[in-house]
Design goal:
Helix 1 (about 10-20) packs parallel to helix 2 (about 55-70) and helix 9 (about 260-275) runs antiparallel to helix 10. The protein is of the alpha/beta class. The protein has one domain (about 1-190, about 230-280): TIM Barrel (Alpha-Beta Barrel). The protein is about 35% helix and about 15% strand. The two termini are about 40 Å apart. An eight-stranded parallel barrel has the order 1-2-3-4-5-6-7-10, surrounded by seven helices. It contains eleven helices and ten strands.
């Protein structure tokens, strides 16, 4: 199972190249400076500038750094909405990335798939914005020449295995990618609690801590993230993901510092090496908690395991 990391600068590309990851993904902030507002196809709205590199010259340099270290580079073109007047901008955005030597294109809308179908000589990866839950979604992506599908965080190991087995039984030659950590608290690209009063309000609302009343007992509790539906850590299921046929483990964090993301990537990379060496999932988790005491408080104490079969909410709100 490969590791895919977010790159938002030339320096971050150099850091990940030294770490020995296999894949990276990156987006450019806009086609032209005056087009920043309408030509951002990164799926990040107001955060697009923060999580994108400045220019195609930077992209060319990043591609060179990555290719010199045998890292494949995917270009983020996962805009969720493409009105007709944006088609030319979108195609130019992708064409210029291809000229820089990227290895794949990440697409986030049916309109994008239709525009690019049969026009690319590199693979297309469907963004998590499609939120594929079942094999019928896989059939559709195959019909659109998609070579890799990114599964949502609100899915179980059983469902992941069923999708992997289905793609193999149909001989689609399609790769499956899942998230290592975090993810959307609702449905990626379909959130109705998105705030617009500040740049990161949509992140704060869904993952925020609230005062909650348990309706069955009348007991009040403080600081509980009741709107945060999915979970945040796949360490407990990492061994199962490696064995079930998942192609790639993706790390979020284009808008974060390279120090923060590289630390998380390093933890998972070490865990994968330990599992390959014969360590049990319990031993791997114990090692992580020992070296990172905050891990247990941040993830384990809240039962924040990604891809588990059941979700046990402690309150009836």
């Amino acid at each position: 199972m490969k590791i895919r990391v977010p790159v938002n600068s030339i320096e971050s590309a150099r850091v990940f190249a030294k770490m020995g990851v296999e894949e990276a993904y990156v987006g450019v902030k806009g086609i032209k400076e005056q087009d920043n507002r309408i030509a951002n196809f990164n799926g990040r709205f107001n955060n697009a500038k923060k999580c994108s590199i400045e220019s195609y010259d930077d992209l060319k340099e990043i591609v060179k750094i990555c290719h010199d270290s045998n890292i494949e580079v995917s270009f983020v073109a996962n805009s969720r909405y493409l009105s007709e007047n944006l088609h030319d901008y979108y195609l130019e955005y992708v064409d210029r990335a291809l000229e820089c030597g990227v290895d794949a294109i990440i697409v986030g809308s049916i309109g994008g798939l239709m525009l690019l179908k049969d026009k690319l000589n590199v693979p297309v990866c469907s963004s998590t914005f499609f939120y594929p839950y079942n094999k019928y979604c896989v059939d559709f992506y195959h019909s659109m020449n998609v070579k890799r599908v990114v599964l949502p965080t609100a899915i179980t190991m059983k469902e992941i295995q069923e999708i992997v087995d289905y793609t193999e039984s149909r001989k689609y030659g399609m790769e499956i990618e899942v998230f290592a950590q975090f993810g959307c608290s609702n449905i990626s690209g379909r959130c109705n609690v998105c705030g617009h009063t500040q740049e990161n309000a949509y992140l704060m609302m869904c993952r925020g801590l609230y005062d909650v009343t348990d309706m069955s007992s009348g007991k009040k509790t403080e600081m509980y993230p009741f709107m945060n539906a999915p979970n945040n850590c796949s360490i407990c299921n990492l061994d199962a993901l490696m064995k079930c046929g998942v192609t790639c483990l993706k790390f979020l964090g284009r808008e974060q510092s390279v120090e923060s993301i590289s630390h998380m990537v390093g933890i998972f990379k070490t865990a994968m090496e330990q599992l390959k060496g014969g360590a049990t999932p319990e031993e791997v988790k114990a090692n992580i908690v020992k070296q990172n005491p905050w891990w247990e408080q941040g993830f384990c104490n809240y039962n924040q395991c990604l891809y588990k079969e059941t979700i046990n909410a402690p309150y009836n709100v």
